[in-house]
Design brief:
Distance between the termini: 19 Å
Low-confidence stretches: 255-260
Oligomer: single chain
Helix content: 40-55%
CATH architecture of the largest domain: 3-Layer(aba) Sandwich
CATH topology of the largest domain: Rossmann fold
Number of strands: 12
Strand content: 15-25%
Mean pLDDT: 89
CATH class of the largest domain: Alpha Beta
CATH superfamily of the largest domain: HUPs
Length: 280
C-alpha cells in the first residue's frame, strides 16, 4: 500500500503535473503527502574566485554575513512556498506535512525517501538554470533512492492503463511491486512487455513477472516486441497503446550501472512525454 508520498517541491509548468499525481495518489490511497523544500548548500556557500589584494586569483569563501543573509532569504521563500502548498492540499481534504531541508539535495531526497513508499518528482524545475532535459536532481534520486520514483510527464493523466517494461533485471523485478500496487486497482489494466530478439525468449523472460502480478490480483496482457533499441520501442509502445503510466527498472543488466545514468532510462525520460515510475 502507498501510505506515504514524498514530494520535493520544484518550479515551472512540469511541477504542476507532479503535484497533481501526488494529489491523485493520496486521494486514491488515503495517503499522507510530505512536501519537502530543498535549499542547496551550494547556493549560499559556493566558493568564489578572488583575493584581498587582487594580485593572484584564489578560491575563497563568501563573507559569513553574506552567506547568512542569503540563507535567511532562501529559507523565508521556502516557508512561503510550503505554506501555499499546504493550503492547496488541505483544501482538497488531504493529509499533508511540510519541511525544509538544507544540504546536498540528492542526498537529502534519497535519505528522506526511506521513510516513504514513493517519491514523486517533475522532470525539471529543481535547478535555477535549467540546461538538461532531465534535471540533475532527478537523475541523482533515481540512482540513489531505495523507493520507486514517479517522474511526472508533461501533463497529468489519471492512471487507467499501465505499461510495464520488463527485461528480467533485478531493477525491473523490484519495479513489479509498484506495478502490482497500482495495477490491482479497479478499472486499471496492465500490459507487460519485453523487448527481445525472438518471441520465444521474450515470453520466457515474462513468465516470472506475469506470475508475480497474477499473485497480486493483476492479470496483464503480454506483449513481446522484436527489436534492438529498447528506448525507442518503449516510447513507441507508450503512444501506440495509449498507456497513462510506464513502469520500468532504472537500469538493465549492465554492470557499469553504478557509474552512469542508465542509457535506456535517460532516453525514455528525454523523449517520452508520459509519466514513468522507475525503480533502482
Amino acid at each position: 500500500m502507498i501510505r506515504s508520498i514524498l514530494l520535493p517541491l520544484a518550479d515551472g509548468a512540469q511541477w504542476s503535473a507532479a503535484r497533481e499525481y501526488a494529489f491523485w495518489l493520496a486521494r486514491k490511497e488515503g495517503s499522507r503527502v510530505r512536501g519537502l523544500a530543498l535549499i542547496d548548500v551550494k547556493s549560499y556557500e559556493m566558493p568564489v574566485l578572488g583575493a584581498a589584494d587582487g594580485f593572484m586569483p584564489s578560491v575563497v569563501a563568501p563573507p559569513l554575513d553574506e552567506s547568512r543573509a542569503l540563507l535567511d532569504e532562501l529559507t523565508a521563500a521556502a516557508r512561503e512556498r510550503l505554506a501555499e502548498f499546504e493550503r492547496e492540499f488541505s483544501a482538497r481534504g488531504l493529509s499533508v506535512s511540510t519541511e525544509i531541508k538544507t544540504g546536498i539535495p540528492g542526498e537529502i531526497v534519497c535519505r528522506e525517501a526511506v521513510a516513504h513508499d514513493i517519491v514523486v518528482m517533475s522532470r525539471s524545475g529543481y535547478e535555477r538554470v535549467q540546461e538538461a532535459r532531465i534535471d540533475p536532481l532527478v537523475q541523482s534520486v533515481i540512482r540513489g533512492s531505495l523507493r520507486p520514483v514517479l517522474v511526472a510527464g508533461h501533463t497529468f493523466r489519471e492512471i487507467g492503463h499501465i505499461l510495464v517494461a520488463y527485461d528480467g533485471s533485478i531493477h525491473a523485478a523490484r519495479a513489479l511491486g509498484v506495478a502490482a500496487e497500482l495495477g490491482s486497482r479497479e478499472g486499471v489494466r496492465t500490459t507487460l512487455v519485453n523487448i527481445a530478439q525472438s518471441k520465444e525468449s521474450g515470453l520466457e523472460t515474462l513468465i516470472q513477472a506475469e506470475a508475480y502480478l497474477y499473485h497480486h490480483g493483476v492479470a496483464p496482457q503480454k506483449k513481446v516486441v522484436i527489436g534492438w533499441r529498447p528506448s525507442d520501442l518503449i516510447c513507441e509502445l507508450v503512444v501506440s497503446t495509449g498507456a497513462d503510466l510506464l513502469v520500468m527498472g532504472a537500469y538493465g543488466h549492465r554492470p557499469i550501472r553504478e557509474m552512469i545514468f542508465g542509457s535506456t532510462t535517460e532516453r525514455v525520460l528525454s523523449h517520452c512525454g508520459a509519466s514513468v515510475v522507475l525503480q533502482s
